[in-house]
Predict the structure.
Amino acid sequence: MSELIPDVGTSFALQKKELNKLLASLRRLGYQTIGPHVENDAIGYGPIEGIDDLPRGYTSEQDAGRYRLVYTGHTRYFDVTPGAQSWKQFLFPPRSSLFTVRKTNGKWQADEEDQPPPTYAFVGVRPCELSAILIQDRVFLRSEWSDPIYRLRRQSAFILAVNCLHPCGTCFCASMGTGPKAETGFDLSLTELEDLFLVSIGSEAGRMALAGLTIQPASAFLLQAASKGLDDARKHMGRTLPDSKTLPDLLLNNLEHPQWDDVAKRCLSCTNCTQVCPTCFCWDANDQPNLSNDYTQRVRVWDSCFNPDYSYIAGGNTRPNTRARYRQWLTHKLASWYHQFDILGCVGCGRCITWCPAGIDLTAEIAAIREGKVS
Amino acid sequence: MTTQIAPTSMALTPTKPMWPYWAEIVNIQSEAPGIATYWVRYLDPAVRKGYTFRPGQFNMLYLPGYGEAAISISSDPEELDTIGHTIRSTGSVTQNISRLKVGDVIGVRGPFGTSWPIEQFKGVDLIIGTGGVGVPALRPVIYHVIRHRQDFDRVVLLYGARTPKDLQYTREYEGWEKAGIETMITVDRADETWQGQVGVVPILFYRLRMDPKKSVVLTCGPEIMIRYVVFEALARRVPSSRIFVSMERNMKCGLGQCGHCQIGPYFVCKDGPVFSFEALEPYYSVEEL
């Protein structure tokens, strides 16, 4: 059985320790293996060598404005839901060079790029996070042009998705239709059962990575266990955002709703929600010249619609207060995004709720707007 | 996912759309205090030959060490060897561009955005309401009208500046009048030289006998001026689908990507800067959107 690699679209079972071989195989194929690990009392994403680097035995308690990583000693490697970081930081780095230019004989010239971008294997991509990557594909890869920084990282990246059996207190992917099961866009996907991984093959690249691994056929019992686990997960989302299809009309028809004034009293305009959001894509560009100004690097950095400078023009600031900025963020994410990219900008990962220092919960804000009530 | 990309402009690389294209400043014309037109010519002959733009579109001007600024193209769309940008020096990029000399080189990416729909309206009365540094965005329309005067019935330019000294392109007014453009000019504050109209642009509507059913209104300028020009046009029953507005917002990319220029569902750099008021109205009326 071990010599035969199953076809794309099929599933099989894998002993947990075989994951070490899979990670080694990915590294042999030239990928940097990046996965979840414990970092500063939270789950972060960084280089991992083997399964011992994974956050086995941890769980996270998450609520509005609250995150606690707790060690419970369970035996699952991928059970803990993500922290503040997302894969966005690898595909759309917080800081990157657009180009460098230098002046020779009085004329400016741009330097050709010579550094190839890193080749990543993302290990443990949650279905909501995979949806976020597919959403950012629409933002960065257009029919008329594409962003080279994103494109080169994205097209070479390997995605090992992990389905979610234990959502946390701020999760609502089931409402957004983005989880808890990864349906498309992965090279391999895992469902972590008590003793085994159930693995689905999503692409030829996923299939190639399996060479040399000892695999077992997936029994009906295992398939049923995974399916039941995912059904249970759907019922245990910490949050819900009902009727997501009606959100564009709801929000764009309520641009003067008193709830915007109410949330503006609580929001600190700190930008946390936009930094942790796996789909927020706004950026700024600035020049970093040398002292003689004959060389400069044009640098792209993450920006946020909560920054005062964001809407600054010569005549003043078009969004001069927190009410206007919060309204921009929420209506973009859950309404105008749909008009721009034919999909909503929210995947239900809950990060903006967990990491808001004021504990603002967008599902509660939307419920208040829907009910027409002011909390 | 990685779809085939069709090049849209000679001065924009689809696979690296922020990449600069170098152009030499070949002429600088002072227009008014703090305002000058910079005529640039692409260094690469292939880019120079292939570059085209439509009236109302803009370029991203890049000054290394300072950054980029979105600037309307203010020259003749049928004269493409050198391209004019009328710039008011206000921010760090435009202030430092104002220190440049003929022969200096800057980056010019573009063109970006939508254009004034002047080719789809034949035989109409064209009413242009503009003021301040809105007039450069409409000057390509004036050039177009001069070349294709027979395409329109009346053409009226309502133009306002703060003081007579702030009026731009004064050397050209006689030519505009000769070409059959009714040029009505007003200033907010007169000086001893001024014998014309005093007041803001929208009041010129009161001196204008217009046929609203035949009129198409184009407007660009300070947001408050736009607001009242649109108000006067609507009050005379010009349909909102025949009123066109050019918007200004913070822009970093020109691609509908950096996010800064959004108003409602629109990226002003890509879905605008020229909008029909019909499309803009639901969002334009919301303050601080």
